[in-house]
Design brief:
Helices cover about 45% and strands about 10% of the residues. By secondary structure, the chain is mainly alpha-helical. The protein folds into four domains: about 1-35 and about 210-265, Beta-clip-like (Beta Complex), CATH 2.170.270; about 40-200, no CATH class; about 300-395, no CATH class; about 425-528. It has a three-stranded antiparallel β-sheet, with no helix packed on it. α1 (about 80-100) packs across α2, α10 runs antiparallel to α11 and α13 (about 405-425) packs antiparallel against α14. The radius of gyration is 26 Å and the shape is globular. The chain binds zinc ion (ZN) (4 copies). InterPro entries: H3K4_H4K5_MeTrfase, SET_dom, SET_dom_sf, Znf_MYND.
Amino acid sequence: MYSELPDFIEIRQSEETGRVIWTQSPIRAGSAIFVTKPYAAASSSSKLTSYCSYCFEQTGMNGLRRCTKCRVTHYCDFNCQTNDWAIHKHECASLQNWSKAAPSSDYPPPSDAIRCLSRMLWKMRKQGPYARQTREIASMQSHRSSLKPSAYESHTYLAHSLVQYLGLSSPGDMEQYSLSSAADLVDTISRFVTNTFTVTDPTLIPLGAAVSPVVALINHSCDPNAVVVFPRVSTDPKVQEPLMQVIAIRDIYPGEEVLTSYIDATLPTNLRQQALNETYNFECNCHLCTSTGLDPRASLNCPKNCGGSCPLPSDEHALVRCSKCKSVVRSVDAALDALRVGQEGLDKANNLQFEDPGKSIRLTTNLIPILTSAGFPPSAHPLLGLTRLHQQLLTSSFPNPLTQEHLDETIHTATTNVAGLTALFREGHPVLALALAELGKLLAVDEPSPRTTNKSVIYPPSGLPRLKLAYETLLRARKMLLIGFGVTNEGGQVGKEVREMIVALEKEIGVFRQGVKNVLEDTPKLKA
Ligand SMILES: [Zn+2]
Ligand SMILES: [Zn+2]
Ligand SMILES: [Zn+2]
Ligand SMILES: [Zn+2]
């Protein structure tokens, strides 16, 4: 089993955490520990028309070929469609039945979870119960015996949709999928839910759901030494992708366990624990979760601005002091109010970001100053989330023609975002690497109306200093991308893009300098 794993990776059994994977050899930061294609994957409903259902390539508005039978899946070309057919032929029939039974013509296809789970079941049926991969799927961990009522409800909902989608009308129909009872079905769903991954594009945008029993062997830490990414650098992406790569983001030593993070590690401890508990049914004991030290995710700036920070007060711990100068935070209620308003606003703005981006950006625009003036540093929740969303919204609403004001506000926001993420992630984490690349790219955008007086106090600078800053930022970004998306992948698609930008900027800065030199030489010298 698990033939994708290299020889130096060992699977051991641990009493507390079940199976764990260890390395017997040192692994350098930026190296791919292993690479594998998901056992099954399905794109999310919103991506069905713009991404290939087989290889997950984005093909823009015109290039996609639609399955004429179900009219749901889209492909890059005939090859991707043919490659997908072995599984899609079952899916195609199910999708057609689903739409026939739909209450209206615009009724959406089932969620990516249902479609991915079904693809998994069809593949298992095809390969048979003794195939290596079927046995790997069957040995993935399930938590059915200790399911929480909330999880039980969502699993029951999934079970209902699945029964309908697969067209199972009697218990006998379930046998073909090696399911002998309703309990078996819930068990399979539970195993799927706790072991599912998000397929992402090379910029970490979520594209759908995937299952991979070998990647599922890796345990969780909120401060992981490895990440799962999809850098999309195959020589023939239309055949090989989507490939999951497990990349070391720091040096890992012999005898160390390989760990990735299952959740958004920018969240403070209580929210991380909640997310892990709800979806994965365990309590994390990593050093971040057990530390009693100051967490930049839940802290305030010193009330006297000495440069130190204070833990975020709570109803139980209302008296908090600066870690450096020991000043007491007086405005506890204001901070707690800002936290509550900010959290509610972030949830709302996130939900509205595609439906009503105008309303979403009004929320982020109003909330960011409230949290900042309540003393939240850029790394604190929910300010970091608001800043990241604000940046996305600003970038996707660039006016035409672009104004200096809009561009500079976007750069400001991107800078705050990088500052926040720098406090949370180690060098080379893909999230931080991408944020830096984004900032560098923004700084390199042609200025619509550069300032002529270049006071050094103004940020972002204009003209040559701005180009230089763009150049330095992209250099740093590239160094981190090479780690986060793998050295041999050249930092993935974004890493390659950034390298090209660096070369172009080198030229531009050279020309700029030459231009300035020419102007100086052309200026008639003043007579002494
Ligand atoms: Zn394709
Ligand atoms: Zn079809
Ligand atoms: Zn943790
Ligand atoms: Zn202080």
